[in-house]
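Entry:
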Amino acid sequence: MDLSQRSQANVEYMIEAIKNKLRMASGAAMQSSAFSVEQYEDLHDIYEMVMNKPNLSISEVEAVVSELGRLRSS
């Protein structure tokens, strides 16, 4: 997948990948359709950080979920 292109499909891909990596129990609450292409750069930064870490601490997971929640509501 070419994530250098800003598209809703790429937004959805990144959200799903983040949810899978974080093993979010409440993944259903984090619908990829709730995110806009306008937030692409922020989402891509989060995606890159999450995917490049072999493991995330509880506090890192909480911070990512918090940031995704902020992006979703904006």
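The radius of gyration is 11 Å.
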